[in-house]
Amino acid sequence: MLIRTLFVTAPLAMLLQAAPAVSSETTSQASATPIEDFSAEDAFISLAGKWSGELQYRDYQSDELESITVAVTMEALPDGETIIQRYDYSDPGFQVYITSLITVKDDVLAGATARAGRAFETYEKAIAVTRQASPTDWGIVLTDESNDDNRPARIRETMTRDQSVLTVLKEVDYLDDDKEEWEFRNQITLTAQR
After folding, report:
1. Which residue, among 47, 58, 42, has the nearest Cα to 165 in the 3D structure?
2. Dihedral through CA 184, CA 20, CA 154, CA 175, nearest 10?
């Protein structure tokens, strides 16, 4: 069973696509309550700490909605741009540990992921800040072109932080069909641990 969580979704994109258009409602919210000098780096650095919660995903074989518990630890390095993420979850039948090194600079997230028994994966994603009410209340959209379920796809991850809760919704639009349609892949909901 292939499960990809949070930022670990794809190897290096051949060509990054611009972030999807933001609705006028979201734009109005963001422009009505901007934080001076708030950046994507600030948003990701604000995630430092321990998180736990649930990953819901659509199983590739059965197309059924499944759910597992997940723990994530994020450490922000002193450079203000680099985050180390560690994931711990049970992929039914065995424990999974994933470590990612992520750098956030301006409008690009670049990362490398290590998981036992697999080659390192590298990736880049375009970042668009869509809401910035406070350092712990924001929205970000990550986009890239890669593969999902062995099919070429545009991948969109919508991250929403609301104080101590972080939600990441992953959707895909397959490029090998005539439809332009975003399909649910997974959603992770995490709560900051004290």
Report:
1. 47
2. 100
Q: Alpha helix (H) ranges present in the chain?
A: 24-32, 40-45
Asked if residues 24 and 130 have their Cβ atoms less than 8 Å apart, the reply is no
List all residues 6 or more positions away from 29 whose beta carbon is below 8 Å from its beta carbon: 131, 133
Rounded Cα gap, residues 75 and 45, in angstroms: 8
CB atoms near residue 9 (< 10 Å): 26
pLDDT per position as a tens digit, 67-85: 999 999 999 999 989 999 9
| Residues 52, 161: Cα–Cα separation, whole Å | 14
Amino acid at 169: L
**Cα–chain center distance at 155:** 10
pTM exceeding 0.90: no
Tokens of residue 136, six digits: 């712990």
